[in-house]
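Supplementary Note 3. Input sequence used for the single-chain structure prediction.
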Amino acid sequence: MAAEKLRDLSQPMDVSLLDATVAAFYGTGSKEEWHYADLSEKHYLVRLKCTVLGEALEDRRAAADHILRDLQNNPDMWLQVVHILSSTQSLNTKFFALQVLEGVIKYRWNALPVEQRDGMKNYISEVIVKLSSDEVSFRRERLYVNKLNIILVQILKHEWPARWTSFIPDLVAAAKTSETICENCMAILKLLSEEVFDFSRGEMTQQKIKELKQSLNRIYISITTGLYFSIPSRGLLDEGTVLMCYTLEKLLNLYAAPAYRNLTLQCLTEIAALSFGDFYNAQYVNMYSIFMVQLQNILPSHTNFLEAYANGTSEEQAFIQNLALYFTSFYKAHIRVLESSQENKNLLLVGLEYLINISYVDDTEVFKVCLDYWNYLVLELFEAHHNMDSPAGNMGFQMPMLSGVAEGLGSQLMQRRQLFAAPMSKLRQLMICRMAKPEEVLIVEDENGNIVRETMKDNDVLVQYKIMRETLIYLANLDHEDTEKQMLRKLSKQLNGEDWTWNNLNTLCWAIGSISGSMGEEQENRFLVMVIRDLLNLCEITKGKDNKAVIASNIMYVVGQYPRFLRAHWKFLKTVVNKLFEFMHETHPGVQDMACDTFLKIVQKCKRKFVLVQVGENEPFVSELLTTLPATIADLEPHQIHSFYESVGNMIQAESDPDKRTEYLQRLMELPNQKWAEIIGQARQSVDFLKDPDVIRAVLNILQTNTCVANSLGTYFLTQISLIFLDMLNVYRMYSELISTSIAQGGPYASKTSIVKLLRSVKRETLKLIETFLDKAEDQQHIGKQFVPPMMDPVLGDYARNLPDARESEVLSLFATIINKYKGAMLEDVPKIFEAVFQCTLEMITKNFEDYPEHRLKFFSLLRAIATHCFPALIRLSSEQLKLVMDSIIWAFRHTERNIAETGLNLLLEMLKNFQASEFCNQFYRTYFLTIEQEIFAVLTDTFHKPGFKLHVLVLQNLFCLVESSMLTEPLWDASTVPYPYPNNGMFIREYTIKLLSTSFPNMIAAEVTQFVNGLFEARADLSSFKNHIRDFLVQSKEFSAQDNKDLYAEEAAAQRERERERMLSIPGLIAPNEIQDEMVDS
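The predicted structure, written as discrete structure tokens, is reproduced below.
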């Protein structure tokens, strides 16, 4: 058969058969082409299902795909590449052959004999020179030449500079022979520099990247000089300025013609974005000047761009968008040049005026283009302004003789600030008018003009808000007075009705909220007094339910952003909170949710204020609130009541007097406790009462309320949970029995019925309440002794007895929390925990990687807590039980779910450290060292487990440090199976690792593997070097080549994010006060 003939690579391939196969795969051949061969190939054509009768294209493609894959996977196929390229005329076949060759270059190049490597690189070079030496063939075969260039660059990454020292001289010599060869040489150099400088991370080893960068930098001058003098028409380049002027003149003339205006503007934008240092500054200024004169004739600066865009044709709209791109590109590259003379400054201001007006256009893409530049510009201006107060100190001037230089610099910065003052003022107005909606605002206007509750977050809007907020923060820091004046002027127009619309009020208030923290405290106080007063007045005088909902939303957003102001002004704080209580009775969609969210946010930052008796008050606000609590929450939904109770819990937590705190807690929990007592009383008379769905919902609601308060109060919640604890466990046991009975009778589907789901919700909330309290409570042993023993049978025993579908994963997280909290005090209870959950949970989660996802993560979290705090309990396990533990840990870090794999790796690290410090160190490592090393290398080199790279490295470092230390006093090898007596464990592990990796990576030569393993031992003491050495190996092995390798650099990325956060914290307001986790002073 012809297919088998193709697969037989012991003789030169029949290229015409390969052409037909490739054509069948791409579906490009005609029926005649399928039948190109003589009758002896008939069976092959049948195989391809390409007979005259014509089967489906997909069948033909599948058959061809199968053959091509077989050829591609054949390790000897690359030897046919030269023959194929020399014989075929099909571009697709050439690309297939080059794809085969590229795979060999990436994965097996260094393992090839020198003669084969030299032969291939010489052949590729010759084909490139041949095709690019002739203008006609170069243009005709451009795609083919480009692919050959890529192949050559892949070879260069291995060969140059060490093994192909003559490459650059050869390149320059070839470039001197013709213009087209020179052009292609430039393309090769561009590809090479991009590979080295832009795409090298994760593709090459650190040393190779460094070597190539140094080589390229070193020979840059000789390359440019050689290629410059190689161009026959270099006289034009000698007159480069003339050429550029001529080009710009022609483009600007075409720009005046409407038919070519958009295309010309796109060309000018590309030119404007280029930067050649100072050489062409005069030409750029001239280009900008002529452009601005022509633009003002076409479209005067006073044009209303908002209306022009809305009413314009598609060509006119494209012109406005291209105009925005032109201005932003030009200013990013050349704005400093325009600041050099007064005439240029005037034109710059006119251009900025245009860009500000374009920014009002109601088109998301146009606005994004403008916003990106405004953010860039104001950041540059702010950074200069930020350093202006002490330029000498900031720039390292320390000698008195340089003070004049510092003064001169300060003067320049001041002049620049004055130059941009007017445009920045207009930009503030723009940002205020177009401010995007923050995440906290839940009330929006729908497409029908109705005010509704937001149902889904718009991520694009949130990203836009983040950029606009940052831009406005910089603008506010540049001129606080102008920012305040513009906002208050716009607010007064809302109050007098001159500029009243929902959108205008929204954007203004979102802007006011976004600059929180940017002003000094005194200015912020003055500003907020006027803002909140005017907004409250606006709410009073405005009629209409929707109008009031919009104003309420804005009041809540603004006050929630300024906790510092509220803490300093009790009367305003009290007024605002009472206003929130009013909004809690407003049934308009979203208002009550936002009122409860804002109340919680304010209380968390100002809680101390509510438990003090303020001037002019008879009692603390919290006492007054508790008196009126039933009326305040009367109109709230259950989830809103839970939020309200959490807020009040935060107030009570701030009370320092234990007696008052207990009294406040009793008053707060009076309503849920009455309902609880009523339900338990009825249940004592008839247990069936607890089976009523409404009663189950009431129990769930009471438990959720308790959980929210426990979350706020922590240890101080002890009196309340003690009151309901035992009854709660009885309800838990009863509901658990009901669930098990339902599932046993109804099968797996019973767990999905509404009643079983409701019962399980009560069980989960019970566990969550206990876990929340114990987690938040201070580390007091008597609390653990009081609450843990009564739970052993109702909770742990119930978990063991239940059917798998009835087991709650929260049991595992509860006992993980208990062990993390009470540590060694739980040592005696670990065997009971182990017996109840270990075997039965493993049976649930080891059948596959999908079932019971919550149980998986929480099970390994529990194991980690035991390993960390109760390690002696693990030592007491039998060898079979310990093996089960280790197998489960290995199973965990093999998991493709990131959280589970990371938990397994952290657990493994805990186990390794604890066993190293124990008397069983030798016994443990003799049993598990080789298994752990083998499994870690397996996941390390598996691309599905890249996120665990940091922990893989830590485990390996731990193992290699241990084997070279004195901790292991017995051999790791089995003397009965290893005849050679190694001098020490280090030598044995060195040889074992070399064999392991050589087997796993046959594409790497023995010397490379040996060098890597030796490097691991040498770098074991330095984590950074050890990590980089492993990164290089992963690239060298080609397991991670040509993939997204950002997970290998996750630590560096995290460090970069931390540096960025520190920078943002240094700028007033850039991180909102509510986002700063540190407890704000509240006295």
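The longest strand covers residues 443-445. The mean pLDDT is 83.
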